[in-house]
Amino acid sequence: MTTRPLRMLVALLACLAFVAASCGRDDEADGGGDGGTDTTAPADGESKPFINPDEDCADYQGTAGISGDTITVGTVRPASGPYAIYDTVTKGIEAYFKAANAKGGIEAGDGKKYKVNLLKEDDAYDPSKTPDLVKKLVEQDNVFALVGDIGTETNLAVRQYLNEKCVPNIALATGSTNWGDAAKYPWYIAGLPSYATEARAFLDYLETTKPEAKIAILAQNDDFGLAYGKVIKQYIAETGSKMTIVGEETYDPSSGGTTEGATAKLAGSGADVFFVGIGGTQCSKTLTFIPATWKPMTYVSITCSGKLSMSLAGGKDEGVYTAQATLDTGSAADQANPKVQQLFTDGRAQGLTDSELSGGIVAAGWGFASIFAEGLKQTETVDRAGVMNALFSLDSANFGLQRDGTTTSTDGGDDPWIIESLRVVQRTGGDWTEVAPMTDYNGKSSSFAG
Amino acid sequence: MTDRRPLDVLFRYGPVALMVVVGLVLPLTTSDYWLGRILLWIPLAIAALGLNLLTGFNGQISVGHFAFYGVGAYTCGLLVAKWDWPMGLAVLAAVVVCFVVGVVVGLPALRIKGLYLALVTLAVAVLFPDLVKHFESVTGGSSGLYITTPEMNSRGVVVERSIQILAPEGIDLSTEQWTFYLYLAVAIVAFIVVRNIVHSRVGRSMIAIRDNEVAAEVNGVNVAAVKVFTFGLSSALAGLGGAMFALWEAQLFPQSFTLGFSLVLLVAVVVGGPASVLGPALGAIFVGVFEDMIKPELPDELSAVTPLILGLSLVGLMLVAPGGIAGMARQLAARVQRSRPPAGPAKPSGDPISTQPSTT
């Protein structure tokens, strides 16, 4: 009984541990120099700007991250772990900025052209890792803003920090109803439609086709997944709809398990509508777990509706419903649209393959980057508050991959949602077919939140 | 005592003095960003100190000590967030709770030892994050526990603000600087307490049990009491670290207390030097430097193999210096002293525990 074997055991375990508990962090780049505080919000004529940094910020660094004609922005996304599929979103963001840089930059409202430099960090979709990485981006790398940051829980973990620092978090890659709270947290603006609005679009469609639907809900047990159930319950309570919820199951994404058991349980609930509020590859897998004997109308979350996610469903995607807000790069009809063609041309030039470009997830990132670009284009004063105020006062705008004929408007804390027009589509023969036309829910998103 | 030569004094107190001086100067010369990261090495060092007491001095292996860190963190976090306890009191409560939990977990250690005890603590480590998730309504589960207080912001809206350890009025230090000094003071007290315990009757009993349990018992050591007490004390120290972690982070997630982190803590103990009072602090610095400074600088291609790099360097260190950094320093000191003619009767320097494992 000497201590030597003990030490060897300890050493052995320690080695194993480090193999098991790895987490990649990347890039370095030291930020140099603080931005000046010389500029304030643009005087927008008649209306008062939504954010007034003189009142809202203790230590406002409006032009941090801008050096010469280059704006440095950051993004945190899962590049490892079970949600690594969303790294493709970041590829879309990167392609958009690189394509814009190749053309000399994005022309801002002040008439100057700015190039955008994107720094990436990997939090593996783990909110316990996000704060350190965001602090590094803000305090060490001195980024101007975060763009297309992925994950509801991860963004919640840094919400208070970013709002106190007055650092914009633009086009969050999540539609959590939390982002409707712009009055409290004015430096956050979402890049997806609210999950509540998304669910509402499908419910409105159900009301016309299956008014007595018996709904089974499978939800990821976090803010993202649980939002759907809340919205459906609120809808039934408020409208007196004859729909009923006959089964509810949750799934813990950090458990490493699958949704198989939960799906099997719901299959026995007698439901004729199956609402899948799951993200990542588990969403596609869920479709494969539906037993052949159960034939519900299945709805998948907007986060899982891309061609890539559908292709992982092993052919079980046929007949599935989802809601769509923007042009679908995987659809043959939409590929003829000049905006989508531009994405393909620019994306290919940045080394993305056609299957990536049509997969849907790259397109999402492209859209998030376009939101940042729109903020930059619309502001006369290029600083943090200027870009945010521009995004919070959009007036019938149409940019990025928005469908022709639809527009978007925002109005500060009263209507902080950019994407509010949705249509319901059904999967037929490997493509989405419209079953309910584009409906504009402008200004209503926050009222749908359960 | 009086005839101790200057070199002995240097070797004996030099490292401590150096660490304290660096600790005092660091906050004045480092950016708040880095200070915020480095100050979390202190709770880690305190937890490693606790684990070292158990593993290094008492010979009981725990591979799940981060679970106690987690118990301390959640106890402190819940008391402050849900029941508005003052921070200091919450930390004390966390220490007491962890002592009790440690004693309970330590009871099986009376019957099982070595690898089997390691397996029991392994189960504790695996269980803890799942428990946190299971009692989601209290702990927040994977969505996290946010330790906040409601506060009116400049727009007149009430927002939940993370708790902060603010410097008292009149002291011109940033939150990071003040917290660092406070944590450093707590750490110094913890290290002194452990040093005194190790040098006391209880400490000698711990070591006697480690070296030969039967012999210790024959010589009148209450083996059961000492073992259980050590487990409790060790857990209480881990809990103290956890509570400090909770107060600084102000948000807790179960994934911060997984088995992987327990093993990181073991690395800190092994690298620093088991059975050395100062070793855990050195080990925590080593782990901190690697995790916070070296790993982020490695190129992307290497990020997948960083655990391997650390693992290999650890194996290398074990081959060169089985006594860890502290052991290496002690050997070095011994060599320097041997090269000079002795002035009086040779005295073993440093702690009562020799670098070389004693054989039985």
DSSP, total strands of chain A: 14
**Record field, number of beta strands of chain B:** 4
Weakly predicted, low-confidence segments of chain A: 8-46
- Total of DSSP H or I helical runs spanning 4+ residues of chain B: 15
Counting H and I runs of at least 4 residues, what is the number of helices of chain A? 16
What percent of residues of chain B adopt helix (DSSP H or I)?
55-70%
Shape of chain A: globular
What is the CA-CA span between the terminal residues of chain A? Answer: 62 Å
What would the average pLDDT of chain A be, to the nearest integer?
Answer: 85
Q: How can the largest sheet of chain B be summarized?
A: 2 strands, antiparallel
Distance between the ends of chain B: 30 Å
Largest interface: A-B, 54 and 70 residues
What does the largest sheet of chain A look like? 7 strands, mixed
The secondary structure category of chain A is alpha/beta
Order of helices and strands of chain B: HHHHHHHEEEHHHHEHHHH
Helix content of chain A: 25-40%
Residue share in β-strands of chain A: 15-25%
Low-pLDDT regions of chain B: 345-360
What structural category characterises the helix and strand content of chain B? mainly alpha
Radius of gyration of chain A, in Å, reads 22 Å
